[in-house]
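Long-time lurker, first post. I've been practising inverse folding by hand and with some scripts of my own, and I keep getting stuck on stretches where the structure tokens seem ambiguous. Below is the full token string for one chain I'm working on. Before anyone asks, I'm not after the true native sequence, just a reasonable design that respects the backbone. If someone could post their per-position residues I'd love to compare against what I wrote down in my notebook.
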């Protein structure tokens, strides 16, 4: 993937030099609680570096890492995505909506016809963002998995097709 840029935001391929920051975020329970890891994932910089693949992306604002996103090709024109704005000062300002618009627009421009994702049922802020972009709820998975603390968690599956996509950026990238 080439860099995707809009205003002061950049999405780019994660590199080995990003692994230290990624490991710090992944080991931070406050960052990872929504994903079921309230104690963090307990990884190392070396393990993170080994796991970086084609769809492992980082988010920069003004050339500073503030989060990560990813995509995975599921075949048949379907991509699964994820996003985390990890730095608290990057949250609640519309950055996630712009980043998602950038990533989703790029995926549609590069041959994908459907984007899917899931989120914790408790993450109502994320649900609001996804729905504002045109994502449709497909199903709710009640008590579908247990987090690190053994608490049952529920999730919502979403999907988006190009004709329903509402972009929050003003021009083609």
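-- Answer (accepted) --
I ran through it position by position. Result:
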């Amino acid at each position: 993937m080439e860099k995707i840029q809009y205003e002061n935001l950049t999405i780019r391929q994660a590199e080995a030099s990003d692994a230290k920051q990624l490991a710090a975020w992944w080991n931070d329970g406050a960052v990872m609680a929504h994903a079921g890891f309230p104690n963090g994932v307990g990884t190392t910089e070396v393990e993170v570096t080994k796991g970086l693949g084609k769809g492992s992306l980082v988010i920069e604002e003004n050339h500073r890492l503030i989060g990560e996103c990813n995509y995975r090709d599921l075949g048949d024109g379907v991509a699964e995505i994820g996003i985390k704005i990890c730095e608290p000062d990057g949250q609640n300002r519309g950055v996630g909506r712009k980043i998602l618009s950038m990533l989703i627009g790029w995926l549609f421009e590069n041959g994908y016809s459907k984007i899917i994702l899931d989120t914790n049922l408790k993450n109502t802020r994320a649900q609001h963002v996804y729905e504002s972009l045109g994502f449709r709820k497909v199903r709710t998975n009640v008590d579908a998995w247990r987090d690190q603390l053994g608490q049952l968690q529920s999730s919502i599956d979403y999907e988006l097709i190009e004709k329903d996509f509402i972009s929050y950026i003003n021009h083609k990238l």
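A couple of notes from the structure itself: Strands lie at 4-6, 9-13, 56-61, 64-75, 78-85, 114-120, 136-146, 152-161. The longest helix spans residues 95-109. Happy to go over any region you disagree with.
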